[in-house]
Automatic annotation (TrEMBL):
Family: Belongs to the glycosyl hydrolase 2 family.
Signal peptide as annotated in the record: 1-23
Name listed for the protein in its UniProt record: Beta-galactosidase
Naturally occurring in which organism (per UniProt): Spirosoma sordidisoli
PANTHER family from the UniProt entry: BETA-GALACTOSIDASE, BETA-MANNOSIDASE
InterPro entries in alphabetical order: Beta-gal/glucu_dom_sf (IPR036156), Galactose-bd-like_sf (IPR008979), GH (IPR017853), GH2_Domain-Containing (IPR051913), Glyco_hydro_2_cat (IPR006103), Glyco_hydro_2_N (IPR006104), Ig-like_fold (IPR013783), Ig-like_GH2 (IPR006102)
Glycosyl hydrolases family 2 sugar binding domain segment(s): 27-214
């Protein structure tokens, strides 16, 4: 008897002995469709009549061209009032005719309201007396289901599949009519900018996507299965939920077996447990030993599969289920997050649910595989889902690749919404959180969780503190925090806050990267010191790049880049269409520098928990935030690469603490080399080679530093470098490079060196330096003089003084931030222009421009000839596309004029880049090469200046 039972159990697990096989009937295909914009369908019993239109599901209305044209009256979901540019006079033409919008991508059609989907389904005769469940994997938003004219129920989840038990409504062996009403009106006011529902990102779509099916099985069935790993005990605790008809008793066996998904031969012994079910819903708990567990983490994402089979007394299979899990425990130790006891440093991106081809989250493995492999290739190990929860495929891919996921319930309760008021929003957050744990809780990649993003509400602390306590007690498989951004509550297992970054919201030109002289020795230890738990920096970066108009061809789906059309048109109207590529490349190099500074500051901070970028890829809404090295399709832009990013963003990164990056030749470069190492293992007997090279890649000096042991930690000192600069005679760019010998771990920094004691005014020669366009200056020009006009502080308010320039590129964008400075995206110039012959530069901003732009006022040259090009040109925000200049040249009468709106006179002994620039301009102006081609009228120049700077006395 024992042999027979064991054999039967084995056959069951192998799928060879199955008297009642579970089956699935797909509902993909053609459905009848009827839109219900006036919401009369329920009152008129639409579920009992055929519909006039058709649609293919899975899919959305927009995908099939259903809905209305986009107009100025379109009832968007999401704030647009902040996009003041759109309502300005200069944008009037874009509001007429074929409407173009700048604040997010434009859908080809738009519909808000109920939509009814209907089809007939042949139910197999063999499904009689079986449980049948309707599965709708991803819906937006509320669904109501009718079967053969009978109401089957309603659901409104944004995070999990909508599932309906249709057992008592379907008739086996005949045609059945299924009608589904989907309503994408806001059901609970969770915040209209929440990425789960907003037109800023995935769009407020209407439809049914992912798996649409009917699933049949025994009336007594396995329901919810949760697996809780215990590494120290080398086992898993398994809770098994059963469902069955009321007033029925079932006796049988539960067979469980675990196998490794990495090793097909590694199958653990079967476990058989006798069960007796007497209630309609029963949960049993058991344990299963895993003697030598293979652990799951970012380096070794080992996964297991648990197979469960319910067998009746006659050895007939009643129900079966398979669950994938990982032997992973996440915790904290001091201010570090740990995975399986080993410290980790989170290097994350923020996914805001932007899907320009579909307008909704794809549910396929291929799509999420591309996203997550790209993240890992750029040195990241973590992904946050901002106010939304991804579908099952995302968790599956993250499990396989070893990516730590931080998932939020679908709410950004701000901008009119709030938490803690005790109403529908609070209830919905709890409900959705429970659904997330039930649906995705077994995934080892699901490591962290919060209510959502940046909450409002006077009672938020009380509500969110209780929320954290509730879920900490309920499910210990992940860490919990109140919300992304804030609040920092004592209940939090980790904090996410925005103070620890090089530019905070609203900080403008007072941020570290704009205010302080270029250096790499700062970190956030003072900011995080009060925190007793891990501190993750919130949405660092947000550094913009100029639009890549070549990207527009990729928008072949439901969303169109009319924002890019606007920006390209205004650029062309200003005569700068041919500079679009230059603007992209120059701003992109500055963007990369800014992200490097942000990430390295985090890696330099002792005891830091990690960071979440905003972002590695673009955000299409909130005024258009082009913050990524990748576009919204997770594809690279042309100015950087994954190999460059992974040098300063990786599990192991070499760092240099330098108190300055701009030097004079009477100084020395003093660098403290450190290593941040969060790899799989400690390292021993390591050698770091270093070199300083010139701009021709010639090695000037080099050496080696030895490190006996590299722990899993950051801020680990490697050694000191001291390089005397006395041998350098000319202004130059040097590069400090460090590399871990016999590895790909390397990093580098540009250093700028200028001759000490240089007297720029010694190069004045025949140049007349003026500050105003007085009649005397004009007269001298007319007579053939060479004039350097330095009008810093004298630019007219409407001709450039209102343009706030800083060193960094634009933060987020100038629309959503209400014009937060800087308004520019760096500089573009011709490094071979003779005016810059003695001021080494590339075609874009590097740190040698920091002092220059920090003491400058741009000039707006919109009224100059269209083809006129400045010598030094700031790149304006794409919302304005003004032709800006810091330096330009032209002919006035018989004379030659160069105008530079940089302060080239104040404190030059302590401002070597400005001193060097002045020297370079003067040398150029005294040479035969200074021969401007463009003739400029005096009034054209005078209108740039304030009346006191352009008077005619």
């Amino acid at each position: 008897m024992k042999i027979r039972t064991t054999l039967t159990a084995l056959l069951v697990l192998l799928g060879l002995y199955n008297s009642i096989a579970q089956s699935e009937l797909t509902l993909a295909g053609t459905w009848q469709l009827r839109l219900d914009p006036t919401d009369e369908g329920i009152r008129r019993h639409w579920w009992s009549e055929p519909f006039p239109d058709t649609i293919s599901l899975p899919g959305s209305l927009t995908e099939h061209g259903k809905g209305n044209e986009v107009t100025l009256q379109t009832p968007w979901t999401g704030d647009v009032v902040d996009s003041t540019y759109f309502f300005s006079k200069s944008y009037q033409s874009f509001r007429e005719g074929d409407l173009k919008i700048p604040f997010w991508l434009k859908p080809v059609k738009y519909y808000v309201g109920p939509a009814w989907y209907r089809r007939q389904v042949d139910i197999p005769a063999g499904w009689k007396k079986q449980r049948v469940v309707l599965n709708l994997e991803r819906c937006h938003w509320k669904t109501m289901v009718f079967v053969n004219g009978q109401f089957a129920g309603s659901q409104n989840s944004l995070v999990a599949a909508h599932q309906f038990d249709l057992t008592n409504l379907l008739q086996a062996g005949r045609k059945n009519t299924i009608t589904i009403r989907v309503d994408n009106n806001t059901q609970v006011y969770i915040g209209q900018n929440s990425h789960s529902i907003s037109d800023h990102t995935q769009t407020n779509w209407n439809g049914l996507v992912g798996n649409l099916s009917l699933r049949s099985g025994s009336l007594t069935a396995l329901d919810e299965v949760q697996v809780y790993p215990n590494i120290s005990q080398k086992n898993i605790r398994v809770t098994v939920g059963f469902s069955q008809p009321r007033n029925q008793t079932f006796s049988g066996k539960l067979l469980m077996q675990v196998r490794s998904l990495q090793n097909s031969r590694s199958t653990l012994p079967q476990q058989v447990k006798a069960i007796k079910l007497t209630a309609e819903n029963t949960t049993l708990e058991t344990t299963y030993s895993i003697p030598s567990p293979q652990l799951w983490d970012e380096f070794s994402p080992n996964r297991y599969e648990l197979s469960l089979v319910v067998v009746g007394n006659r050895a007939d299979t009643i129900s079966r289920k398979k669950v994938t899990f990982g032997m992973r425990e996440i915790g904290t130790k001091g201010t570090r997050i740990t995975v399986n006891g080993r410290p980790v440093f989170l290097r994350g991106d923020v996914d805001c649910a932007a899907f320009p081809l579909t307008g909704y989250p794809p549910t396929d493995y291929k799509h999420w595989g591309k996203i997550m492999r790209t993240l890992k290739e750029h040195g990241l190990n973590h992904l946050r889902f901002h106010s939304w929860c991804p579908p099952e495929a995302a968790f599956q891919v993250a499990d396989e690749l070893g990516l730590y996921l931080y998932v939020e319930s679908p709410s950004w309760a701000n901008q009119g919404s709030a938490v803690g008021a005790g109403g529908l929003v609070d209830d919905f957050i709890y409900q959705e959180s429970e659904r997330m744990l039930k649906a995705y809780g077994n995934h080892p990649s699901f490591c962290m969780m919060s209510y959502g993003n940046e909450p409002a509400g006077v009672n938020q602390g009380n509500f969110l503190g209780k929320w954290v306590l509730h879920f900490k007690a309920k499910d210990t498989r992940r860490l919990y925090t109140s919300g992304a951004g804030w609040p920092m509550l004592p209940e939090n297992q980790f904090h996410i806050h925005s103070d620890a970054r090089i530019q905070r919201w609203g900080e403008g030109l007072a941020s570290i990267i704009n205010r302080d002289k270029p250096r790499t020795d700062y970190d956030w230890r003072t900011i995080i010191r009060p925190s007793k738990v891990p501190y993750i920096s919130h949405e660092i970066g947000q550094w913009c790049v100029y639009p890549n108009f070549d990207e527009m061809a990729k928008y072949t789906g439901v969303l169109k880049p009319t924002n890019f059309e606007i920006f390209r048109q205004t650029l062309q109207d200003q005569g700068m269409g041919d500079q679009a590529r230059d603007f992209l490349m120059a701003s992109g190099r500055l963007q990369t520098l800014c992200y490097k500074a942000d990430i390295e500051a985090a890696l330099r901070t002792p005891g830091f928990g990690g960071f979440q970028l905003l972002g590695l890829h673009d955000f299409p809404g909130q005024g258009t935030a082009l913050v990524g090295a990748l576009d919204v399709f997770y594809e690279p832009k042309p100015y950087t690469s994954k190999s460059e990013y992974s040098q300063f963003c990786n599990a192991t990164v070499l760092l240099a603490r330098l108190d300055k990056l701009v030097f004079q030749t009477n100084e020395s470069v003093k660098a403290a080399i450190e290593i941040a190492h969060f790899g799989a293992h400690e390292l021993t007997n390591q050698t770091v080679s270093w070199s300083v090279t010139d701009d021709q890649s010639k090695v000037l000096v080099q050496g080696k530093l030895n490190k006996e042991r590299v722990h899993i930690d950051n801020a680990q000192p490697v050694g000191l470098i001291n390089v005397d600069l006395a041998s350098i005679k000319e202004p130059t760019r040097l590069t400090l490079t460090v590399q871990l010998v016999n590895s790909a771990v390397k990093n580098s920094w540009h250093l700028w060196v200028y001759p000490a004691g240089l007297r720029a005014d010694a190069a004045v020669g025949n140049v007349l330096i003026a500050h105003s366009m007085t009649d005397e200056v004009v007269q001298r020009l007319e007579q053939g003089a060479t004039v350097l006009l330095l009008p810093y502080g004298r630019i007219a308010p409407d001709k450039g003084a209102q343009v706030k320039i800083g060193f960094s590129t634009v933060f987020w964008n100038t629309s959503w931030t209400m014009g937060q400075p800087p308004h520019t995206l760096g500089l573009v110039c011709n490094p071979k222009h003779p005016a810059l012959a003695h001021f080494p530069t590339e075609s874009f901003s590097d740190y040698q421009w920091h002092d220059v732009v920090s003491h400058a006022q741009p000039m707006i040259l919109n009224e100059f000839p269209k083809r006129f090009r400045p010598v030094i040109q700031p790149i304006d925000t794409w919302f304005e596309n003004r032709r800006l200049a810091l330096a330009f040249e032209g002919k006035v009468g018989k004379g030659k004029l160069l105008v530079c709106s940089v302060d080239l006179e104040t404190d030059l002994s302590n401002r070597p880049p400005a001193r060097q620039l002045k020297y370079s301009l003067l040398r150029y102006m005294n040479s035969d090469q200074f021969n401007p081609e463009q003739a400029l009228d005096t009034p054209l120049i005078r209108q740039l200046l304030t009346s006191s700077a352009s008077d005619r006395r």
